[in-house]
């Protein structure tokens, strides 16, 4: 049982990844991207605290859910409870998608000294990385907002030691 500070939940999202997704919007972000879609999630003291077991139970009760998406805020500001939640979701056959303003390379570097960041990276199947850049807004991109953001196959990337693009079916 871990505590997590969140801004909210969308129990059946179709815009935060493929299929019906249980999306958790974490609270707290250091990036403050110009044009951010969720500026209310920036304040680390905002939102409310939940128990990850309660989130898991709610997600598990919906047979339509294909996977779990962590958005924000920035999920990598609270990696430990999210890694725990992701591990439970994987155990029941759900995939994990994580949005972050950090680049994959920044997270790899951080993971060298932060076991919680490493744990969340290991649990992620797909990572949308990089800050949102308003000047690079592209409404034709699938599941991301600006041209600089990448869709990364995390297991393959960790295995190969560099970012490998993920292709949606």
Count of DSSP-assigned helices: 5
Following the backbone from N to C, one meets helices and strands in this order, namely EEEHEHEHHEEH
Shape: globular
List the strand order in the largest sheet.
Answer: 3-1-2-4-5-6-7
Helix content: 25-40%
> How many beta strands in the DSSP annotation?
7
Category from helices, strands and their pairing: alpha/beta
Instruction: Write down the Rg.
Output: 15 Å
What does this 3D model show about the protein?
With 169 residues, the protein is of the alpha/beta class. Helix content is 27%, strand content 25%. The chain has five helices and seven strands; from the N terminus they run E-E-E-H-E-H-E-H-H-E-E-H. Strands 3-1-2-4-5-6-7 form a seven-stranded mixed beta sheet. The radius of gyration is 15 Å and the shape is globular.
């Amino acid at each position: 049982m871990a505590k997590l500070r969140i801004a909210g939940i969308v129990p059946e999202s179709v815009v935060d990844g493929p299929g019906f997704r249980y999306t958790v919007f974490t609270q707290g972000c250091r990036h403050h991207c110009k044009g951010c879609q969720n500026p209310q999630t920036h304040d680390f003291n905002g939102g409310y605290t939940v128990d990850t077991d309660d989130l898991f139970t709610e997600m598990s009760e919906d047979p339509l859910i294909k996977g779990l998406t962590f958005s924000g805020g920035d999920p990598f500001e609270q990696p430990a409870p999210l890694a725990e939640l992701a591990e439970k979701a994987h155990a029941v056959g759900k995939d994990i998608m994580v949005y972050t303003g950090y680049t994959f390379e920044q997270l790899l570097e951080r993971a060298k000294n932060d076991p919680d960041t490493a744990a969340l990276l290991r649990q992620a199947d797909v990572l949308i990385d990089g800050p949102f850049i308003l000047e690079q807004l592209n409404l034709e991109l699938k599941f991301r907002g600006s041209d600089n953001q990448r869709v990364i196959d995390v297991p393959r990337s960790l295995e190969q030691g560099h970012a490998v693009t993920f292709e949606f079916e």
